[in-house]
Structure formats: C-alpha cells, structure tokens
C-alpha cells in the first residue's frame, strides 16, 4: 500500500487530512507516526516555499523512503493590517503564545474598524515530494471577515475569530463536514488529491 507521510504533529490537522484523503486508499501517517523527527527552519518567502522546505526535509529521511511526503503552510491574511500575520501566522507574537492571546491582539488592532473593512482570508499551500523526486504544489483560500470576539470550540488557531458570512458563523462554530468543505486546507487537499490521482 502507498504511504503518505504528512509533515505535521498537529492532531487536529491529521484528522482533517485523513478524512479528506481517505479514498486514496493510502496509509496516512504523521511525521511522529513514521518515526521521523526533523528540526525544520521555515525561512521561505511564500506559503509554497515553506511547504516545500518541510516536505523536502522529511522526504530526505530514511524512514520516508518510497513514501509520498506532503507538507502544508497556511496563514491568516487580514487586509486592513496589510495582510498580516500572513506567512508568520504560527509565529505571530511568538511561537509559544496561546492563540487566545493572538486572537485578542488581532481583535484589539481592528477595534473600531467597520465590518466591510474587516475582510480576511485563510490561505493554505500544500507541497508534495513524490518517491521519484518530482515535486507538486497547490494553493487554496477561503474568504471571510475578522469577528469581534472568539466564538466556537470546534476549530483551532485563528478559527474562533474567522467569520464566514456564507454560514453566519466562525470556522470554530462549523461542523467538521462544513469546515472540510470550505476550509483552505480542505480545498488545497482536494486539489492535491486530484494531482496525485492524475499521476497514478
């Protein structure tokens, strides 16, 4: 059976990945499950570059031999704040800073800003390194707005402040099925799945 190793240790992310890629019929492992530990410095200037840096680093490990290695890089872009935090979303205000603090900071920075100017998007790039060395990269985004307070407990990261007008909810209030259908990562995973199916 084909193995896919995803360069993440995030359990929430792995759950989403497994749900969306289930019908590829591959064994889907996190780095940890594959026995891979790699100290990866994400110093790219775009989501795609960072995703490729991670995928290449994991693909170079002996334990990843013969597997498709995937990695993602994603971020929140707030238009009013010059698309911050962008590619620095995970490191915004420091890597170990709780997201409740990061979210509160963004809400504070948008204090007094009208609804129509609170536009934002989640962007996700996914890169794959195939066993033969070929590389693929895809990108997707979901548009929304920054809310006025944290709402919902289903998501992680910036989900509680990212309001999706289509649903009238934040991404942390959506069901797993709703979120997977519209999320930046869900869309990017489906694009990558289509690329992999073309190459079967």
Brief summary:
It contains five helices and eight strands; from the N terminus they run E-H-E-H-E-E-H-E-E-E-E-H-H.
- Total individual domains: 1
Class by alpha and beta content: alpha+beta
Q: Distance N terminus to C terminus? A: 13 Å
Number of continuous helical runs:
5
Provide structural commentary.
With 200 residues, this protein is an alpha+beta fold. The protein has a single domain, classed as Maf protein (Alpha-Beta Complex), CATH 3.90.950. Helix content is 28%, strand content 24%. Strands 1, 2, 3, 4, 5, 6, 7 and 8 form an eight-stranded mixed beta sheet that branches. Helix 1 (11-21) links the parallel strand 1 (3-6) and strand 2. Helix 1 crosses helix 5 and helix 4 (176-182) packs across helix 5.
